[in-house]
Amino acid sequence: MPANSIPYELAVIPERSPGPLLRALGARRFDGRTIRFTWGEWTPGWGLVLRLRKWSAVYGGGWSLFVQPGYGKLRVSLPLPRREVKGEGAWGFQADLGGGNVHVQWGYGHPGKVYDLPWRAWRCERHDVLAVGGWVPCPEIFAGRMDNPLAATETHPYRYVTDSGEVQEVTATIAVEEREWRLSWLRWLPWVRRVSRTIEVSFSDGVGEQRGSWKGGTVGCSYEMQRGETPAECLRRMQRERRFR
Question: Taking CA 75 as the corner, what is the angle to CA 37 and CA 20, rounded to the nearest 5 degrees?
Fold first, then answer.
């Protein structure tokens, strides 16, 4: 072995040995996160899962049962006959509590259906743009674009200082848009909603740390307005707070 080669005995993260109780249950390996048994494995994480899965021939064609009653997912390899079928099969559901949806599958080659959980099923119900005469619905084709013929716009000088001290002077054209989201299960409740009013910003030239590189600088963005704040004041606050990497 060359003198400057990597000392593997120091580079490899050692595996943890399962305790006596886990070994009695069939545990063979523990990498600090996943416990691997002779009959399956356990992984940490939150969720709700109850699903029977038939693996494709590429993965051995076996059967597995997934159970997750809250914290910790258990996969159990089942000694069922290995049928030769096209594709994989799954029966059951998997709830992603973080993502806010439930994935239900039932059958061979079935992609399944995704259902939103009640408290995470937000849908955009209204998208308006501020015109000279007031708020008007924003056509989807012009959402977030500065060439929206309905939008009232104004321009302001914008100054950005990079981490290295380079000063970038550009012109910022701004418009104002507002969006309203409601829970799809509770659309009839007017007070269960989220409203976001933003300035839509278009720069005359790219700004940010990547300006002049192959990636290029930022040429447009949006920024959330605060109560009692004018669009110009929001732009100045963005100039103080926002970094473009």
Answer: 30
